[in-house]
Design a protein that fits this description.
14 helices; alpha/beta; 5-stranded mixed β-sheet
Length: 382
């Protein structure tokens, strides 16, 4: 007996399985991928589930073919996604740039591992956060979310699809191996309690310019077969979608595809705070590392240190304004990440020198012990 698209109830799931189930609940009906550790279970779950929900799951020849198929499926009217890890994510970057320029909604799950190169295929890392923002070429904005539990993998999969559809932009879910392979309780609500956002469609019977945006800067998107005439190209284009290689056309489209995210940052950014009411030292973390950071803050409080935690649920856009305001009130930030320092530089930029910024780094292959982050909190106090 086929299972329904939404597996309502309480489950014991890994992050990789939960992100697949959240995507299906959000309406994803096309998955193209290529197996790669530690994300392969996402693919396996889709291969199992797509026939049950009337969707399509296909293995492509490589990651470049996978993301290309996803973009084509999106223009055919389907909610589409893929999953990979660092090396595969690198191969997808040219198509990420194409998706940005053509404003093609899609979701990319990156279950990060120790890197660079082949690195540590079965062990955790958080080294792809800057690549998620700047990996493709040109000026553009992207959305990237970071879950720290299987429950959030389910919830953020839905949010990633909703944001991608609303803003017509690729949305990235930056997981890590620990979260992907971690099993915890996942509560799936009834279908009618899940908020679903679908892309804005053009009105039939009216003239259609595929890249003419309303005041929200987001143009309606027709699908192949809807009865509209439109042209899709990665070249700089006019509102018809036809190539226009003038400086004026380029400036117009780049400003719009950036501003549709920048001007809505306050709606997109999401974070969680803990013990921030009187905090003088704030730990900033995300993903699996934030679980250790939570415990480190508790240990610091037991020692009488006024520590707090800012857990980033949205990596991009970055909550720069909020961190800038915090920098005026606190002594220092401790940035805990599983790499040799990436988001720490964003925190430094946003702090404007008003608060010290200290890196708590592990290189990959493991996550922090709470005591390691506590040592950096103590360093900040001194």
């Amino acid at each position: 007996m086929a299972r329904p698209p939404v597996l309502t109830g309480i489950h014991f799931m890994s992050g990789n399985i939960a992100v697949a189930e959240g995507s299906i609940a959000a309406g994803c009906r096309f998955y193209a991928g290529y197996p790669i550790t530690p994300s392969s279970e996402v693919f396996e779950r889709f291969a199992e589930r797509m026939p049950e929900v009337g969707g399509i799951c296909i293995q492509m020849e490589d990651e470049m073919g996978s993301i290309a198929a996803v973009l084509g499926a999106s223009w055919a009217g389907l909610k589409a996604m893929t999953a990979t890890s660092g090396p595969g994510f690198s191969l997808m970057q040219e198509h990420v740039s194409y998706a940005v320029m053509t404003e093609t909604p899609c979701v990319i799950v990156n279950v990060q591992r120790g890197s660079p190169a082949t690195g540590l295929p079965t062990l955790p890392g958080q080294g792809d956060v800057m690549q998620a923002k700047w990996g493709a070429h040109g000026s553009y904005e992207i959305i990237a979310l970071s879950p720290n539990s299987p429950q959030e993998c389910f919830d953020m999969a839905i949010r990633a699809f909703n944001l991608s559809e609303q803003y017509r932009v690729p949305a990235i879910i930056l997981m890590d191996e620990c979260i992907g392979h971690m099993y915890e309780k996942v509560v799936i609500p009834p279908k009618d309690q899940i908020k679903i956002v679908n892309r804005k469609k053009p009105e039939k019977g009216k003239p259609y310019l595929p890249y003419k945006a309303d005041d929200d800067l987001i143009p309606p998107m027709a699908a192949a077969g809807d009865g509209f005439k439109f042209h899709i190209t990665g070249l700089t284009h006019d509102e018809r979608g036809y190539p226009d290689l003038s400086a004026e056309a380029h400036e117009k489209i780049i400003k719009r595809i950036c501003d549709k995210i920048r001007l809505n940052t306050h709606k997109i950014v999401d974070y969680e705070t803990f013990r921030m009411e009187d905090a003088e030292i704030i730990v900033i973390s995300f993903g699996a590392a934030s679980r250790s950071a939570f415990k480190a803050v508790e240990l610091a409080r037991e020692d009488g240190i006024k520590a707090g935690l800012l857990r980033l649920k949205t990596i991009w856009p970055f909550p720069c304004d909020y961190i800038g305001k915090l920098a005026e009130k606190v002594k220092a930030f401790v940035v805990a990440e599983v790499n040799y320092g990436q988001l720490v530089h964003e925190v430094e930029r946003c702090a404007h020198g008003k608060a010290d910024v200290i890196l708590s780094a592990v290189m990959g292959g493991r996550i922090h012990r709470p005591e390691e982050i506590l040592d950096k909190i103590m360093e900040a106090v001194k």
